[in-house]
Write a structure and sequence with these properties.
- The chain has 257 residues and is of the alpha/beta class.
- The protein folds into two domains: 94 residues, no CATH class; 120 residues, Cytidine Deaminase, domain 2.
- It contains six helices and twelve strands.
- The chain has a six-stranded mixed sheet, with helices on both faces.
- Strand 11 and strand 12 form a beta hairpin.
- The longest helix has 14 residues.
- The model has no long low-confidence stretch (mean pLDDT 91).
């Protein structure tokens, strides 16, 4: 059951106002430990934490195997939200992303805060192979995503990411205050629940470089965004073989790669 905190406020109109008691999306801190040692601290919406951590480890090239991991709760706060989580990983299975781990707080609006050097932003691999599909499928998938955004319906403040199969059927949807977190939750949910690998990923916000790299590492060939892409996102989408659609609203879309 979704339970969001409520905050009092005053809603102003042109010549009047009224008191309101609004549901507000939670943003809470989570410290992630690997084998008992602090790894990073992120800000997130405290739902699907295990999916978030699993997806983050995968998309950051820290643990990319399909084997299940052992998660344990270290601490909770007075609201019952998990504030510290430990994941056990055999050291031999830790990827190169672990060596260039984040050294700073990662805020919900930024996916690469704390990267140590420019080399940490690189990604390589064989380009993905796209496939043809009717663009009308985009509107169908967006309608499905919007219909299932429960946190957004309550608060109006969440980002969403959703995976779909090649026929445009919804496989998994996750929401978070951070758009990068929402993507990681989808990737982690696919791994944790052994869900069919998506053919499409839809995101509710803009597309940055790092979202492209997350999609590439997850081998999702088509990325569809409601909002704008960055220049680096387009450049990397072309190089990595990702079909990137943006400004997908009201039956319209723009393909950049």
């Amino acid at each position: 059951m979704i339970d969001l905190p409520k905050y009092e406020g005053e809603k102003f109109f042109q010549d009047s106002f009224e008191k309101v008691n609004d549901c507000i999306l939670s943003e809470e801190v989570l410290q992630i430990n690997i084998n008992g040692d602090p790894f990073t601290v992120i800000m997130r919406t405290p739902y699907h934490d295990i999916d978030l951590v699993r997806g983050l480890l995968y998309s950051e090239d820290i643990y990319t195997k399909e084997n299940q991991l052992d998660f344990s709760i270290v601490k909770k706060n007075h609201l019952g939200y998990v504030t510290e989580l430990n994941v056990s990983v055999e050291k031999a299975n830790l990827g190169k992303g672990y060596l260039s781990s984040r050294s700073l707080l990662s805020v919900s609006s930024c996916g690469i805060c704390g990267k140590r050097e420019l080399g940490d932003l690189s990604v390589s691999g064989k380009p993905l192979k796209g496939f043809n599909f009717p663009v009308q499928l985009i509107e169908k998938m967006q309608s499905s995503m919007i219909e299932n955004q429960q946190l957004f319906k309550l608060s109006g403040g969440s980002h969403a990411a959703a995976g779909f199969n090649s026929a445009g059927d919804l496989l998994i949807l996750r929401e978070d205050v951070g758009r990068h977190n929402a993507v990681d939750k989808v990737l982690g949910g696919v791994l944790n629940q052994s869900i069919q690998a998506p053919s499409f990923l839809l995101v509710s916000g803009r597309v940055s470089y790092e979202i492209i790299t997350k999609v590439f590492r997850a081998k999702i060939p088509v990325l569809i965004a409601v909002s704008a892409p960055s220049s680096l996102a387009i450049d990397y989408a072309k190089e990595l073989g990702i079909r990137l659609f943006a400004f997908c609203r009201d039956g319209k879309s723009t393909r950049y790669s």
